[in-house]
Amino acid sequence: MKKIYPSAEAALDGVLRDGLLIASGGFGLCGIPDRLLDAIRASGVKDLTFASNNAGIDNEGIGKLLRTQQVKKMISSYVGENKEFERQYLSGELEVEFCPQGTLAERMRAGGAGIPGFYTKTGVGTLVAEGKEVKTFGGQEYILEEGIFADLAIVKAWKADETGNVVFRKTARNFNVPAATCGKICVVEVEEIVPTGSLDPDSIHLPGVFVQRIVLGAPYDKKIEFTTTREREAA
């Protein structure tokens, strides 16, 4: 089965449509699928729901799609660095489902494992628990959270071999693995594609069985979410 595609647009051909639920990897601006997000923006599809730890920043990451108002709903844990997100949410243009960070990761992982729901103590007694089933285990309350089963997963990795075995690098591993597994179709953009058999089997983070399509996205430029500086001290 051929998994390598010549471009992000080609890798998403026949997959995109209005109203998709998309699981998107990345943590802050680290490990976000830039090329695939650009291709989604260019396609013009709309009414999208994104399950992602965050929504990028203005004009970066999913923030690009917020600017073009292609996103109907966000399922996220951290959204504090995106002014357009804030504006759309407060004006009622964007539906938001806030989800604790660990719970969001587990909802994706559960979906990838075929688990429709699980109980967690996180959020008990808070707004997170509103409308959710509560059950008692060992004398303590837990709330029911649903697994995420996405129509499409888009992730960014360091290396992949030609069969789709994937290696992530450092922080980029956060959320990319659970996001990749919970999609019916998983498209991975990578910095490097290597021959089959050249990756150490013990170092593979995402097995090729979860990956349907691969695209080479390099070269990338390193984006900084926050730039904090101080005055240089006098000599």
Walk me through the structure:
- The chain is α/β, with parallel strands linked by helices.
- It has a single domain, classed as Glutaconate Coenzyme A-transferase.
- 20% of the residues lie in helices and 28% in strands.
- The protein contains 6 helices and 12 strands.
- The chain has helices at 8-11, 34-43, 63-67, 83-91, 101-112, 176-181; strands at 4-5, 21-24, 48-51, 71-76, 95-98, 117-120, 134-137, 140-146, 150-161, 166-167, 183-194, 213-216.
- The strands form 2 sheets. Strands 1, 2, 3, 4, 5, 9, 10, 11 and 12 form a 9-stranded mixed beta sheet that branches.
- β7 (134-137) and β8 form a beta hairpin.
- The longest helix has 12 residues, at 101-112.
Q: What's the β-strand tally?
A: 12
Number of domains: 1
List unreliable stretches of 5+ residues.
none
Structural classification = alpha/beta
Any idea what the radius of gyration is?
19 Å
CATH topology heading: Glutaconate Coenzyme A-transferase
The oligomeric state is single chain
Name of the CATH homologous superfamily:
Glutaconate Coenzyme A-transferase
Distance between the termini: 63 Å
- Overall geometric form: globular
Give the ordered list of helices and strands.
EHEHEHEHEHEEEEEHEE
Number of helices: 6
* Share in β-strands: 25-35%
Largest sheet: 9 strands, mixed
CATH C-level category: Alpha Beta
